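Exercise: predict the fold of this chain.
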Amino acid sequence: MAEEAVLKTKEEQASSLLSAEKGAEKGIKLEKSINLFSGITIIVGSIIGSGIFVSPTGVLKGTGSVGLSLLVWVLCGVFSLFGAYCYAELGTMITRSGSDYAYVFEAFGPFYAFLRMWVECTVIKPTLTAIQGLTFAQYIVEPIFSGCEKPATAIKLLAISCIILLTVANCISVKLSARIQDASTVAKTLALVVIIITGLVRLGQGYTLNFNDSFSKSIDEDINVTTIALSFYSGLFAYIGWNYLNTVMEEFQNPEK
């Protein structure tokens, strides 16, 4: 009896070890729950964020004129387009989640990949999240406190609440966060469409004073290489987000699309 029990125990251990080895070979993989539409909304929603609503001031201030500011916007868009094409190619070649971390890991190894992720998690992402939260809060309280000074405490508390809610949604489910992203993308796109249509209507009505001698103010004012460089920084900040889809590439149903 004792020998049979020992033999049975060894067989169970061998079976468990074999199952573990098979599981290790398969590996733990993320669920492919992001479709093409959600992928598009992730990119569009990330680019159409707080930057597009706050950056125009910095671009115009750094260039000094409408003509030069439009040129800066075009150049920033071309630069971001090249970056997006490169990341689209990387995403189809290296179908791993992590974006910059995964690519630096493949190219330079784990040490530099860890440094890149450390900077991302401790500096870049928290800063961007804070800016987005504060921008959202300022636009929410604007109609409530129209014509008077907006309380800084209310803006900060509203921004913190928004960040916490979105964090909880992302922790609960990828599908839930994707649906929130879809809804917010549609809302932000509609807001930009309204702004664009309003601008075109005003141009059609003859309000073209700002386009007369559109580069002259850049010459008259104290505009130099430093201020133009700062305007490029503001413009590129508005385009940021074209690489965010690669962060969840492993969860994409068909990366080649």
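Check your answer against the key: The longest helix spans residues 110-141.
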